[in-house]
Write a structure and sequence with these properties.
five-stranded antiparallel sheet, six-stranded antiparallel sheet, 3 helices, mainly beta, Jelly Rolls, globular
Length: 186
């Protein structure tokens, strides 16, 4: 397993080993002891899977506050995404900064996003399936979001000129980070 630190408060790209032959491949995409040895001690509690039919679906920026803040381990089962983590830890030296990676079924890479970060992704092709582990269960009371296009954050989403992403109603009306910063706690 290869672990790449992306330089933003514990956001890591993880690339599991793949063992292939003429039949296909096998991989341990998560093995607790290997993750602990690599400095990734999270206990995963739930798996979530999403499917996006169209290219240009944008999900996010999502996070949960305490007492059920979530670490996330994201990987793509089919297709590719532009996956983003935004540091929203009040007082952090990198507060409001973001980092992104293209995750794809072909590249077989994963992104670890710790508590204290908002997460979002844009599908780069149609028929995309994403699987992610979380360290706490979903909580409607603690579920929060930030506007995907908050100019103070300035994410450079890889949209074509004039292209508008496909958003849920919830994501389309999400507030800017500055509007909710005082209510965020992990």
């Amino acid at each position: 397993m290869q672990v790449n630190d992306l330089g933003l408060g514990g956001v890591l790209e993880i690339i599991p080993k793949k063992h292939g032959d003429a039949r296909g491949f096998f991989s341990e995409t998560y093995q607790r002891q290997r993750f602990v040895e690599a400095g990734v001690p999270q206990d995963w509690m739930q798996d979530n899977q999403s499917y996006s039919a169209e290219k240009g679906v944008l999900r996010g920026l999502h996070f949960q506050i305490a007492p059920v803040a979530q670490d996330k381990l994201i990987r793509v089962l089919r297709g590719s995404i532009f996956d983003v983590a935004v540091d929203i830890r009040n007082g952090s030296a990198t507060y409001g900064k973001w980092v992104a990676r293209t995750l794809s079924a072909a590249a077989f890479n994963q992104l670890l996003i710790p508590k204290g970060f908002a997460h979002g992704f844009l599908t780069l092709e149609p028929d995309v399936e994403v699987l992610y582990k979380v360290s706490a269960p979903y909580s409607p009371q603690c579920d929060r979001g930030i506007a995907w296009n908050d100019p103070a954050i300035g994410i450079a989403w890889p949209l074509e000129p004039g292209q508008q992403p496909v958003l849920s109603g919830k994501d389309a009306s999400a507030p800017k980070l500055a509007e909710i910063a005082s209510t965020i706690h992990f």
